[in-house]
Amino acid sequence: MFFIIGTKKGLAGYNPGSKISQYKGDGKERVNNQGVSMFLRKRWVMIVVICILLAGMTACTQSKGRDEGKPTSGHQQTMKMAYISMEEGGIRDSEDQVKKAGKVQGFDVAFKKVSNEVNQDEVCSLVNQGYHLIVAEGKALQPAVERSAEQYPDAKLVAVGQQIDRTNVESIDFVRKQTAYLAGVAAGLGSLTNQIAFVGTADPEGHFLELSFEAGVKAVKPDAKISAELLDKKADIQTGRSTARSLYRSGVDIITHMGGSAGAGIESEALARVRSGEKLWVIGSQSGLEEASSEVQLASMDVHLDKAVSSVMQEVREGKFHGRRHKVFGLKEGELV
Questions:
Q1: Where is the signal peptide (predicted)?
Q2: Which of 28, 204, 238, 270 is close enough to 296 for a disulfide, judged by CB 3.0 to 4.6 Å?
Q3: Cα 190 from Cα 300, distance rounded (Å)
Q4: Measuring CA to CA, which residue among 195, 250, 257 is closest to residue 230?
């Protein structure tokens, strides 16, 4: 996995898997030596995509070499799956990804969105509608999944972003600390002001991701100034915009966010400023501004939910579904994560 920064005078490669302490230069020196700013992308500089590939590359219960992109042959019947998630936040493009997996595995997929005021009977209701598989995304849905698993021992349930120890529940999660760390590396390499910010959620996971992000920044730019804002999970677009406005005014030129409505607000504020002539970026996760994000996103952090869900669909079809299994998807590093 390589980070690539491209200019008209050549490419500088950076491999986060190598000893980062060997990296020379602070980023600004490299740009000044070339006599151009990396942000004048239309005339002098182009940033070639910094890909942070999370999840789906390798799973600790998946065998290597399996091609998830080819349809499974011999489907006897179309099966039914329900996918339930929160109205706000969640995995970007989750519906498109799950539909793709359903097409490969021969599943009709129904989608259900619930508000932040989670109805604990929602999952139970879906169980009663005869679905072969029910997938629930997000920790807020964990109580509903646990309740349904207890009441309906024959139901087949998948908990995304949760870890539930029940005989009829498989858990799927993603190694987000890896993406947070690599986002920090990207931010450290990309910043010209040496001021970088992280915006996450005010909970233990948000704090953990903040620490991973800071470690990535410090690995390539030890003297960088890092600001962190941990917001309520229910923070809306306006909160994201006001947070970004304050950070950009303080001299920050790159903000990394972890998605949700606040993340969309951060990108909206960044986009308005870039279009007014400012030179700044975001590193986004699960953004809601796909059409405009290319103008402001230095990098993005995404998960390949389709591969994770597809593996469970195949287990159900083959009668090999097993509960009390926790699949963790992360970066492909030559060994299981």
A1: none
A2: 270
A3: 13
A4: 257
Q: Is 116 exposed, middle or buried (0-12, 13-18, 19+ CB in 10 A)?
A: exposed
d(CA 22, CA 19): 6
47 bridge partner residues: none
* Residue 117 DSSP code: S
Instruction: Say how far apart CA 118 and CA 115 lie, in whole Å.
Output: 6
Q: Could you report the per-residue pLDDT of 180-214, keeping only the tens digit for each?
A: 999 999 999 999 999 999 999 998 888 999 999 99
Q: Domain coordinates of the chain in residue numbers?
A: 70-175+304-330
- Strand segments, DSSP code E, in 10-78 are 10-14, 50-54, 58-59
Please, what is the end-to-end C-alpha distance for the chain in angstroms? 15
Amino acid at 55: A
Segment 201-208 long-range contacts (CB within 8 Å, at least 24 positions apart):
201/230, 201/231, 201/232, 201/233, 201/258, 201/260, 202/230, 202/231, 202/232, 202/233, 203/230, 203/233, 205/176, 206/230, 206/258, 208/177
Q: Residues 298, 47: contact at Cβ < 8 Å?
A: yes
Between the CA of residue 140 and those of 43, 143, 325, what are the distances in Å? Answer: 47, 7, 20
And the tokens for 240? Answer: 């994201």
226-284 per-position pLDDT tens digit: 999 999 988 899 999 999 999 999 999 999 998 778 888 999 999 999 999 999 999 98
For residues 312 and 172, is the Cβ–Cβ distance under 8 A?
yes
pTM recorded for the entire structure: 0.64
Model confidence at 139, in pLDDT bands (50, 70, 90)?
confident
pLDDT in tens, 31-80: 344 333 444 343 333 343 334 333 333 333 333 333 344 444 455 688 99
DSSP 3-state of 100 = helix
